[in-house]
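Run folding on both entries below.
>entry_1
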Amino acid sequence: MPTRNDRSSGMSVVEALRVVADLCCGQQIVVTNQGSARIWPKLRRRPLDVHYNPSTMSGAIPLALGLALAQRHREVLAISGDGSLLMSLGSLVTVVGSGATNLTIVLLDNGLYEVTGGQETPAARMAIDYAGIARAAGFPTSLEFRDLSDWRARAADVLTLPGPRFIRLVVSAAPAEYLTGSTPPLPEQLAGLKTSLEIA
């Protein structure tokens, strides 16, 4: 089970996300939130990437679920932080209850409310088994990774396992330079998304 020290010595969050970005297929929708909404655009930019209100905590999973239900022929990936998930643990039950199988949740767990100043979350010093919580909620695939080489070696296979999928990545804090930039303008993002989804 995780401890605060495990998180502080976790894999590089940038490199962990780079693994996901490199595997992201052309028709997959990606929804980021909070810290990941500022890191992902530096790794890749596509019209199907939605960097959703980095100041709106816990928004990534519900938005991604809505897109997964509306676009059942596409895979949808939600990237969220542990602080955001703690604010909406019930979203895991909602995902399973919806019947959506084309959704993957990647949890970046560093024990911090990163974009609000780096405060520890209430769970930072506790042994919280997020993958176990997702498994108990009914996720058929629920795994965790703490080592970057292990994640690199297994990510491609894990992302093809039965969905919905929950993947907890134990990561270190993001480099400061990744948190100071802004996300692409939301109207621009939404216009690109609507065009890509062929929504009038």
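>entry_2
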Amino acid sequence: MIIIDTGPIVALFDRDDRYHIICKKTLSKNNNILITTLPVLTEVMYLLNFSFAA
């Protein structure tokens, strides 16, 4: 089980992030369960400018 924070999640979804490729490769090879928290997901959505209206 791996606890994942905001940075790698943002990098995974943001192609312009300088760590996008390494996060994508690392997470695609991962066989462990990833867990996070609601505050982390809230921060990810804020940083990615997520909106249901868009």
